[in-house]
UniProtKB/TrEMBL annotation:
Residue intervals of the WCX domain: 93-169
Protein name: WYL domain-containing protein
Coiled-coil stretches noted in the UniProt entry, renumbered to this chain: none
InterPro entries: CBASS_pafABC_assoc_protein (IPR051534), WCX_dom (IPR057727), WYL_dom (IPR026881)
PROSITE patterns assigned: WYL
Superkingdom of origin: Bacteria
Length: 178
């Protein structure tokens, strides 16, 4: 990418609504097909936190003469497999049940396999239960919603309550008008 040179990065952090300045180690770049945007993936030197920076929010780049050693234990593919979208929100442990209807089970198995995630547990009623750590909870929630009534969020409770609220809203719009 830029060799193994450290970078001084000025970045507009949307979550904090301010510009930040980080000393980073470039790890790769990613094109997110969901929103048609490129992201710069880097490790903050001070904390070793890996961040995905939207290219449109990078305000300045200064390549330094200092080199770094690319982390042997870092894999861009591994970093991305737990990500649903490219936000840099904290991780969440989710537990979700997918019911065996409308090809949902097949869709879920394909998606989780493509990500290299653990297989969900198949229950006696042929539904699937997935539990694991993810990043990008809001994009994960959108994916879950794409399964309609064939999915149930069990944990975290706040996400379950959000899904219930969305379902109630759908009932108000699409419910029986008689």
């Amino acid at each position: 990418m830029l060799g193994e040179f450290k970078i001084e990065l000025k970045y507009y952090a949307k979550n904090n609504n301010r510009e930040v300045k980080w000393l980073v180690w470039p790890l790769g770049s990613v094109f997110h097909t969901g929103n048609g945007t490129w992201y710069f993936v880097a490790s903050k030197e001070e904390t070793r936190e890996v961040v995905a920076c939207h290219l449109g929010r990078i305000r300045g780049v200064k390549v330094l003469d200092e080199q770094f050693v690319y982390p042997e234990d870092f894999s861009l593919r591994h970093y991305l497999r737990l990500r649903w979208g490219m936000d840099i929100s904290r991780s969440e442990v989710v537990k979700v049940r997918f019911y065996n209807e409308a090809n949902v089970v097949e869709k879920v198995q394909r998606e989780l396999k493509a990500r290299g995630l653990a297989e969900p547990v198949q229950l006696a009623d042929r539904s699937l239960e997935y539990q694991g750590k993810i990043y990008g909870i809001h994009n994960f929630a959108k994916w879950v919603l794409s399964s309609g009534s064939s999915v149930e969020v069990l944990e975290p409770e706040w996400l379950r309550n959000e899904m219930i609220s969305i379902a109630r809203g759908w009932c108000e719009v699409y419910g029986d008008k008689n």
